[in-house]
């Protein structure tokens, strides 16, 4: 299932930066005047207050149409510039749409000629029957064979025109949807991480549903509306030309039926929206319960019956709504069918008397009956066209809102390039609170310094802000107060994408994407050679298990097709292949068993020994912490202790108390079994088996037993 969450968007943005077009070009492609300015300008240019109110009413209807049924979605009110933008968007397919509409008019004209032709053919045979002289009758001077051949050619032209119109409109719609999705998705990846932390609104809905609505509105729906308009105009005119009396009689029946169709359409639309919401609830329930962890929980607690009943309730809600729809449809179509049949009966009765009097012919009466059906269908289609266009305008506002959104603080392309040489990283009196919780200070005056090539472990209790320090370094957020600098340059003045190119990141639960191992390792690093990928895999201690796989680096994997230890080492290789100046390791071993932790720590220690990369570790496991040259203890938003392990591992130190708490948690009876976690399954290839001594070494490294009592 396609979804947006903060972690995945952060990973995507981090690697997307170097692929993104410059901000100026993006603005040129997507910028439109301010909504408030355009609305004011549009109002001042209105020729009358009535037109202005009518426009506002239409835009309100468009907003309601687009946002109905999008439960929990961000509501966007369309404005007049959005309508202009919609037309401008369609202009990119101007030639295709114009040709398609021209073919549509040809097709509609042929279709509308059918009743006339049928009427004349009936009169043709009626005249032959009444003549009785043996002379062959003619139609417009032609014999029936010639007329039939001509009609066949005309109908063939209409069929070809209809096919061409449908194909061209469909292609134009597909291209427009492709363009909108590409632009909207590309802009979404440029947003700040805090935007994703808020849930990223209904981004997926805009990318999938709304773009489809807009594409159809400015292609297929426009075509349907044009066809309906031509049909109503031509059919109505033809009816008046054939018989004004019969046409006026039918006008007494058609409008009430059309009004009924409008009310039924509104009721059905609301019912459909409610049904869509109910289906969405049912889908969310099924997805939530049928994913791996939830399914295990349901099985473990034997709640299958309760969950089945819960799901049955969701399904029953859909059934009730669809039952209402079935009754409404049944009564509506029965009623319209009855009214239509009565109208035809009336038309035949009165029309028959006109035929008997010689006012009109049988063919004229037949043509008029057919044009009546055309007129009713055209009016119904116009009503549907109006509703579709309103939905398209509303959906367009939502898509354009995503396409045009600018990050609130951290923008790609703004700033200067960072220094090319490695330099000191400094945090000076840094204070920070997450934008979603501004009253809750996470960092409250952090001061620290990291020299080039130094390895530092940042430790502290849960929730003290260890990962927040990394987030500030990556400029996922900016500090509220204080300075984070690289060398003598405040990182706020650096281009975010250039800064992130210097940093490799490994998180506690790294995201791997659907693709090959080689593609995942090279992710975000354009032009990585096979040799560089293999070298990074060896550095990360994952080449052994990769080489044991049947397809090696070309093995396709997904998010969960490797064990936890394998994923973590692939993530380290991904961070190393870009040859970063800084490596951020955020709880990289916390979820691993002892054997996997040993292998990951081996890779980390190897990187640290080389001294080429500044390694910044956030960890709580002693085996990982001890590998760092310096330890920083974070407590209550500040660095309270700093120094090497031997210096901090003293009685009464904050570091000692943290490790003692870990020792207590790891005491017999509290140690987790080395069973595979749910994140470790399924496994493509088993972990490489360690020697017995290696297992002992791994287990000894994992236990915090070096803390002196």
TrEMBL record:
<dbReference type="InterPro" id="IPR036640">
    <property type="entry name" value="ABC1_TM_sf"/>
</dbReference>
<dbReference type="Pfam" id="PF00664">
    <property type="entry name" value="ABC_membrane"/>
</dbReference>
<dbReference type="GO" id="GO:0005524">
    <property type="term" value="F:ATP binding"/>
</dbReference>
<feature type="region of interest" description="Disordered">
    <location>
        <begin position="664"/>
        <end position="709"/>
    </location>
</feature>
<feature type="transmembrane region" description="Helical">
    <location>
        <begin position="371"/>
        <end position="393"/>
    </location>
</feature>
<keyword id="KW-0812">Transmembrane</keyword>
<feature type="transmembrane region" description="Helical">
    <location>
        <begin position="225"/>
        <end position="242"/>
    </location>
</feature>
<comment type="similarity">
    <text>Belongs to the ABC transporter superfamily. ABCB family. Mitochondrial peptide exporter (TC 3.A.1.212) subfamily.</text>
</comment>
<dbReference type="GO" id="GO:0005743">
    <property type="term" value="C:mitochondrial inner membrane"/>
</dbReference>
<feature type="compositionally biased region" description="Polar residues">
    <location>
        <begin position="22"/>
        <end position="48"/>
    </location>
</feature>
<feature type="domain" description="ABC transporter">
    <location>
        <begin position="425"/>
        <end position="661"/>
    </location>
</feature>
<feature type="transmembrane region" description="Helical">
    <location>
        <begin position="331"/>
        <end position="351"/>
    </location>
</feature>
<feature type="domain" description="ABC transmembrane type-1">
    <location>
        <begin position="98"/>
        <end position="391"/>
    </location>
</feature>
<dbReference type="InterPro" id="IPR039421">
    <property type="entry name" value="Type_1_exporter"/>
</dbReference>
<dbReference type="InterPro" id="IPR017871">
    <property type="entry name" value="ABC_transporter-like_CS"/>
</dbReference>
<keyword id="KW-0067">ATP-binding</keyword>
<feature type="transmembrane region" description="Helical">
    <location>
        <begin position="97"/>
        <end position="118"/>
    </location>
</feature>
<dbReference type="InterPro" id="IPR011527">
    <property type="entry name" value="ABC1_TM_dom"/>
</dbReference>
<keyword id="KW-0547">Nucleotide-binding</keyword>
<feature type="transmembrane region" description="Helical">
    <location>
        <begin position="138"/>
        <end position="161"/>
    </location>
</feature>
<keyword id="KW-0472">Membrane</keyword>
<feature type="compositionally biased region" description="Polar residues">
    <location>
        <begin position="696"/>
        <end position="709"/>
    </location>
</feature>
<dbReference type="InterPro" id="IPR003593">
    <property type="entry name" value="AAA+_ATPase"/>
</dbReference>
<dbReference type="GO" id="GO:0016887">
    <property type="term" value="F:ATP hydrolysis activity"/>
</dbReference>
<feature type="transmembrane region" description="Helical">
    <location>
        <begin position="248"/>
        <end position="267"/>
    </location>
</feature>
<dbReference type="Pfam" id="PF00005">
    <property type="entry name" value="ABC_tran"/>
</dbReference>
<feature type="region of interest" description="Disordered">
    <location>
        <begin position="15"/>
        <end position="48"/>
    </location>
</feature>
<feature type="compositionally biased region" description="Acidic residues">
    <location>
        <begin position="671"/>
        <end position="690"/>
    </location>
</feature>
<dbReference type="InterPro" id="IPR003439">
    <property type="entry name" value="ABC_transporter-like_ATP-bd"/>
</dbReference>
<dbReference type="GO" id="GO:0015421">
    <property type="term" value="F:ABC-type oligopeptide transporter activity"/>
</dbReference>
<dbReference type="InterPro" id="IPR027417">
    <property type="entry name" value="P-loop_NTPase"/>
</dbReference>
<protein>
    <submittedName>
        <fullName>Putative ATP-binding cassette transporter</fullName>
    </submittedName>
</protein>
<dbReference type="GO" id="GO:0090374">
    <property type="term" value="P:oligopeptide export from mitochondrion"/>
</dbReference>
<keyword id="KW-1133">Transmembrane helix</keyword>
